[in-house]
Amino acid sequence: MIDRSLSTVFLGLLLVVALGAVGLFVVDVGSTSPDPVAFDDTVTVGLTLESEYALSDEVDLPRAQVFYSQYQYVVGYYGVETFVDQQRQPAHEQRFGYPLTVYVSDYSETGVELNENGYPVPESTPRWTDAETASFVIGSEAQTPAGDTVVPFGDREDAQAFADEYGGTVHDWESVLEQSFDRDDAAVARDRVTDRQQQADARIDNTSGQLDRPTSIVVGEDTDSVQDAIDQAPANTTVVVPEGTYEEKIEIDQPITLAGEGNVTLRGDGNGSVVTVTGERVAVRGVDITGVGNVTREAGDLPVDINEESWDASFLQYYAGTDAGISAYNATDLRIENVSIDTPASGIIVYESDDAVIRNVTVSGPDDPMSGLAGVLLFQSPTVIEDSTFTGGRNGIYLYRSPETIVRSNTIEDNFLGTHLMHTGDSLMTDNDLRGQADTGIVIMTGPERNAVVGNTVRDAADALSPGGSANYVANNIAEGNDLGLRIASTSSIYEHNVIAGNDVGAEASAMLPTNRVVNNDFVGNDVHATAMSGPLRIWSHSGNGNYWQGAAGIANGDQSDMSYSPTDPTDSRLHRTDGTPTLARAPALKALAGLEGSVPGMRTGSIVDRAPSCEPNNPDLLSQTEWEDEAWTCYELTRTTSND
């Protein structure tokens, strides 16, 4: 029996995140020349956890660490180019202050060489050197997992020797700061939403022909069993399974289509997967699957070899080897459509299979959300999952190292986690309806980049949306009636045009770096609109636009209120729940203090300020889909109510 759970991994990683700030080095801003600190004690950016785990021990990538005047922690950047790019971002100095000191890796006297991937491999660990006195090689063959990188040296002659061997030119610090480095960000994730939809359509079109292959064999007429028909069918033909129940487990190892006609049930013996696919361009359609096992197979029993040297070998072995209704390995262009699966473990497992398509599938897992594994488990398999229903079990949909996956228009109910992404970036979760998750509706973990979470509705979950990592685009979602609507744990991400309504807590800002753009969202009917964990002041407005906060006590000044709003302020946080507080909020002393706190980041650590709150909801069409539309009011109506008190 399965005696471990993905939820254990999930909760363990949450604990790591929660405790991660404990060892961080706190800056003494009174010192203008602080000494460098251990890189592990910094708040790090610029490298995904997957990339970090995959690096061999001898690789030592270029790094920078920066002490800021208004940020209490040291920020560690993988790549000098990462710092140069980020410090140019809008409002960077406003959030962090100016750099007090920048240290960079010093490859002088380390005997550094580049390996086959272009990663620096020094004979000894690089020390730290002051960026202002260092020399930098730009445009060489040196790489990080993110792309081209700048290689710093404490000695200019060493930098020139490196450039002579590996290419590039030598620059001083001022010249580096003037360079332009191409790095994808949250705007890229936003711009790729349409491209991802088109990519999904292309995958569906690519596999559509597999549903219309000519019939070669009919089970019961030409063969006695389904497996015999599969074994005898010519490639690129259809095996037709007439109505009835077939008590057998089958394996498909060639490009054929298995098609049920009428009410067709494939029933396993409760031991192992019912359908195993090990061939390319296979299609399975029109069948119900029951009798799925609930065990994990040994390594020798899997139809694929897992590299035991891989950093995640044990994880892959355990979960890729669990039983499922359909288990597919190395099954490029797999198509599963109009299939129903009742399972105590997983519905569908797809392992190292590019461009799979799963459509109109129903997976019923255990009623207990702590039992079973997932409706769909993807491992290193970019896939389209659409128009399907996943009910019960730990995970509705679980993605592991499966970039460029599109999950759209699905119904996901009564799981522990609805949609769960691990080490998976550049994917799209859109137009899904999630309800009743015991833990989280949509969760993105382990530091991936550029995921888009767009147009989803999450209700009745502990946490509705929890997208971690960086450079995410989170937009046009509804989070209603949850314990927590939105957990802002990612960095350098865009959160816009979401409706956060009727939750116990609307949003929680937990990211250690104040680099997110949170704008044009609507907060209505939440017991508490937003909270913030330790860290700097978060400013949730951009270019004169803010968010709509039910209860913001302002007079209309165009489309915005004339007063800033702080959902973490003791007075502001009660405005939508307590009669009479708008009058107090406009008291001259409190108004002056709010203005000062909103302009000086150091005065409100662990706080959120919206400097340009909207007078009316930014997303009335989305808000009308909730029970809270009538609770929103405009600045003018609030002013009129206040004057009548």
TrEMBL record:
Cross-referenced SUPFAM superfamilies: NosL/MerB-like (SSF160387), Pectin lyase-like (SSF51126)
Tree of life domain: Archaea
InterPro entries linked: N2O_reductase_NosL (IPR008719), NosD_dom (IPR007742), Para_beta_helix_rpt-2 (IPR022441), PbH1 (IPR006626), Pectin_lyas_fold (IPR012334), Pectin_lyase_fold/virulence (IPR011050), SCF-Subunits/Alg-Epimerases (IPR051550)
Record-annotated Periplasmic copper-binding protein NosD beta helix domain positions: 381-552
Biased composition (Polar residues): 559-570
Ranges annotated as spanning the membrane: none
Region (Disordered): 559-580
Gene3D superfamilies in UniProt: 3.30.70.2050, Single-stranded right-handed beta-helix, Pectin lyase-like
One matching Pfam family: NosD
Pathway linked to the protein: Protein modification; protein ubiquitination
Keywords: Repeat, Ubl conjugation pathway
PANTHER family noted in UniProt: F-BOX ONLY PROTEIN, F-BOX ONLY PROTEIN 10
Name this protein carries in UniProt: NosL family protein
Source organism per UniProt: Natrinema limicola JCM 13563
Origin organism lineage: Archaea, Methanobacteriati, Methanobacteriota, Stenosarchaea group, Halobacteria
